[in-house]
Write a structure and sequence with these properties.
Layout (H helix, E strand, L loop, with lengths): L6 E3 L5 E7 L2 E7 L5 E9 L8 H9 L4 E3 L4 E3 L9 E11 L2 E11 L5 E8 L4 H4 L2 H7 L1 E3 L3
Antiparallel strand pairs: 1-10, 2-3, 3-4, 4-9, 5-7, 6-7, 7-8, 8-9
Length: 145
């Protein structure tokens, strides 16, 4: 629970908490056999409110070390159990030279509270993640001011 950031997060055991860094929770996805599949960061979005997928896409393209291949796939139909607005962007590219599939979820409410969930996985392992990112989205609870 991160009351100062305006949200709390519940997640399944296969997303293992690694620690906090610069206000972001770091998680890793590990299979029952102990194989690493992906990393995730979850954190309160600071700065101006992101109004749409195009603005979010531009911010992500400017992430240091990220080289995106082509356009991101945008999905605004993701449902959150509490009715929060969700934008999902998925793009392939490289992060610091390593091939990666990057999925980013922006969860927001009308009051302007926004949480970003970023999941990075090698493209060869993306199918094994299935909808595990959606489970992280469902686990975000935005606090009312």
């Amino acid at each position: 629970d991160d009351a100062k950031a305006g949200y709390s997060l519940q997640h399944a055991r296969d997303w293992q908490y690694v620690g906090m860094h610069q206000g972001q929770r770091h998680l890793k996805f590990v299979t029952q056999r102990g194989e690493w599949l992906a990393d995730a960061t979850v954190g309160h979005r600071t700065g101006p409110k992101i109004a749409d997928a195009q603005v979010l896409d531009q911010i992500l393209k400017e992430t240091p070390g990220w080289q995106q291949d082509g356009e991101a796939q945008v999905d605004t139909t993701v449902k959150h159990p509490a009715g929060h607005r969700v934008i999902r962007l998925t793009a392939s590219g490289t992060l610091d030279g390593a091939p990666a599939l990057r999925t980013v979820y922006l969860v927001g409410d009308p009051n302007g509270t926004q949480v970003l969930i970023t999941i990075l996985t090698p493209p060869s392992q993306a199918d094994q993640l299935a909808d595990r990112g959606l489970a992280l989205v469902a686990g975000v609870e935005l606090k009312r001011p």
